[in-house]
Amino acid sequence: MNGTAGFGSGFFATMATILSHAFIIAVGCLVLTAIVFYVIDITQTQHTIRRNYPVIGRFRYFFEKLGEFFRQYFFSMDREEMPFNRAQRSWVYRASKNIDNTQPFGSTRDNDREGHVIFANAAFAVLDEEATEPEAIVYGPYCRQPYVTNSLFNISGMSYGAISKPAVQALSRGAAKAGCWMCTGEGGLSDYHLEGNCDIVFQIGTAKYGVRDAEGQYSEEKLRAVANRPQVKMIELKLAQGAKPGKGGILPGVKVTPEIARIRGIAVGEDSISPNRHRDIGNNEELLDRIAWLREFTGKPVGIKTVLGDERWLEGFLASVTARGAVHAPDFITLDSADGGTGAAPMTLMDDVGLGLHESLPLLVDKLVEHGLRERIRVICSGKLINPTDVAWALCVGADAINNARGFMFSLGCIQALQCNKNTCPTGITTHDPKLQRGLVTSDKAERVANYQKNMIKEISIIAHSCGAKNPRQLSREHARMVLSPSSSISLQDYYRRRSQ
Ligand SMILES: Cc1cc2nc3c(=O)[nH]c(=O)nc-3n(C[C@H](O)[C@H](O)[C@H](O)COP(=O)(O)O)c2cc1C
Q: How many C-beta atoms lie closer than 10 Å to residue 58's C-beta?
């Protein structure tokens, strides 16, 4: 007994001595490190804060970094963050998981705010059994292979490169399940886009990735190969993108893997920066020539993607179209909002260049009506239309279809970590690091993509039925109202008519 007790107390005494020595050494090391940092900070000349507040000033960077991650969980209110607040994101997350998307108690939204859009419910809503499917429409009635679809809500261009392989795979499979199209973005067509067998809109950016020769000109052979794919339904010539009008795509070298370089036709590991304009398109006539050539060569509908800035351009462009005849018009215009998303763009362009969709969409639709081209040129639009009320607004104003990028990123699990321009996206969506991609399980996320798309259509249909329209395509400007003050609102029909007078 005594022997055991002796052993026990000896053991604990030795442990206590070791621990107290370890503690003294650790404290010593800490003090020593602090002294070293103190001397470094006080003598360096680059950082004011560290020079004035040695050692402690270093914590500023640490807390700033932590803020990026934690402010959305602890400090921001539901309707506060940018670009998307928690309420907007949560709707997408719930829709994607196909879980209950009802809310308790009452709205947390400030509905009296000027500029807010509300919908005008009818006295007698459309009964569920009276509801109809959205009518199909034709894109490119004059080309050899017109595209007929009733899809209202589709996946906007995000290049393979800006987003990862599993992200492209999940989007492709999800789009096929939901029955919507997926735009490739400007990075070319990969096998991953084709994997789900969904409808594809092939985008040609200013660098013509995927259809370019060694000199950066069109490669007819590559273009023919793309056009021959039955999944490719339309061609979208990208003039500009809302987040960076007048600037080409930017893919940092760290994201240019050998596979991406092969698909795009560029060098591995080097920054992939497309020209800030199509070199072969410098005016409206050249644009219409290029559209005609692409349509003739591919046999498919050809449209343009742009963001509106100088509104006089639109007038001139439509006048050129009318002069040539409606047959020569672009088959669609994809109108992007100035506050659209991007993998990477300069903040200056992102924040302050181009018109937002709330101004440009009614303008475009009205100009098309004025020129008698409303039925000929289909209007697709994009820009923060991630919740049903946003999409319903665009349909009321006159859009034929809506494209969405970041909403679908949320459906893939995006947490708005704002790291798309690095290779460090924590959700595997915009990184090519296999360790980070591991979490993005394609089969599961494809289901979520499809759920998001389907629940979007379901809820805009609910808005339509409440307004007395049998399906979302029948929504019109009379169905929505703009709030002018807490005690007044005006129908969009009257609002835009007054504005144009
Ligand atoms: C990661 C990322 C990559 C994108 N890549 C492209 C692209 O290659 N081509 C393009 O026209 N737009 C690109 N966009 C812009 C989107 O297609 C879309 O126009 C814009 O984000 C607005 O839609 P949203 O608000 O629904 O995201 C990209 C956007 C994101 C977020």
A: 15
Band (pLDDT 50/70/90 cuts) for residue 69 is: confident
Q: Single out the residue in 22, 45, 75 at which a domain terminates.
A: 75
**Among 56, 75, 94, where does a domain finish?**
75
User: What's the whole-model pTM score?
Assistant: 0.91
Asked whether residue 104 is assigned to any structural domain, the reply reads no
> What are the Cα distances from residue 10, in Å, to 21, 22, 23, 81?
17, 18, 20, 60
- Peptide bond before residue 301 is cis, with ω within 30 degrees of 0: no
Q: What is the CATH number of the domain that holds 486?
A: 3.20.20.70
Q: Are 146 and 39 contained in the same domain?
A: no
d(CA 441, CA 445): 6
92 located within any domain:
no
Domain, as residue range, for 28: 8-75
Ligand 1 neighbours by CB, cut-off 6 Å: 156-159, 162-163, 185-187, 203, 238, 241-242, 249, 305, 336, 340-343, 382-385, 404-407, 420, 430
Cα–Cα dist 233/236, whole Å? 10
In a domain, 282, yes or no: yes
C-alpha 157 – ligand 1 centre gap (Å):
5
- Residue 1: per-residue pLDDT: 44
State both tokens at 184: 């490739």
What is the 3-state secondary structure of 93-132? HHHHHCCCCCCCCCCCCCCCCCCCEEECCCCCCCCHHHCC
211 Cβ partners below 8 Å, 6+ apart? 188, 204, 218, 219, 222, 223, 226
Nearest atom within ligand 1 for CA of residue 409: 31
| DSSP tag of 144 | S
Q: Tens of pLDDT along 181-211?
A: 999 999 999 999 999 999 999 999 999 999 9
Dihedral (Cα; 106, 394, 367, 483), 10-degree rounding? 0
* Tokens of residue 415, six digits: 């947490």
Of 497, 450, 279, 301, the C-alpha closest to 380 is: 301
pLDDT at 346 over 80: yes
